[in-house]
Design a protein that fits this description.
By secondary structure, the protein is mainly beta. The protein has a single domain, classed as Jelly Rolls (Sandwich), CATH 2.60.120. Helices cover 0% and strands 50% of the residues. It is built from no helices and eleven strands. It has strands at residues 2-9, 14-20, 32-34, 42-45, 48-51, 62-68, 75-84, 92-97, 100-106, 126-135, 140-146. The protein is globular, with a radius of gyration of 15 Å.
Length: 147
């Protein structure tokens, strides 16, 4: 994952509340990750530094973070660039806000994709922009990714 952005909305305003993983240095503070390999939280895929990725996150990995101190709002928009690295054997990535699944994303083809940038040479990577607009008004929320 790269370029995670959290935006809060009211009827008249939009505020960029948080931007993560949008630079070359991946900061993983405050993220809870379960099921990753050897405690590794970031990787390089081609020219990109990613949260997760090749040889770090795999089947049954869960990553979550609590965001707090949000300004008054009625909606959240969560967006990020997702890198499907290697094969995804008919698995989906589930994106949740406060334990409610707001989006599920599946790789178009188990081994296919658009690019080969890293990982297993028999597979191609697929890179997509994921966005979810969620009705929300609390001053904090839990964001979670899991397969």
């Amino acid at each position: 994952m790269k370029d995670l952005t959290i935006i809060t909305f009211t009827n008249t305003d939009e505020t960029v509340f948080s931007k993560e993983f949008d630079t070359d240095k991946i900061k993983t503070d405050d993220w809870l990750v379960v099921g990753n390999r050897a405690g590794i939280l970031s990787s390089t895929c081609g020219k990109y530094n990613l949260f997760g990725g090749y040889n770090t996150f795999g089947y049954k990995t869960t990553a979550s973070k609590v965001f707090s101190g949000l300004p008054k709002h009625t909606f959240l928009k969560v967006s990020f660039t997702l890198f499907f690295v290697d094969s995804w054997d008919w698995e989906s990535l589930f994106i949740s806000v406060d334990d409610e699944i707001v989006r599920a994303v599946k790789k178009t083809d188990v081994y296919g994709g658009n690019y080969h940038m890293c990982g297993w040479t028999a597979t191609m990577e697929e890179v997509i922009l994921v966005e979810a607009l969620v009705p929300h008004s609390n001053d904090k929320f839990t964001f979670q990714l899991k397969d």
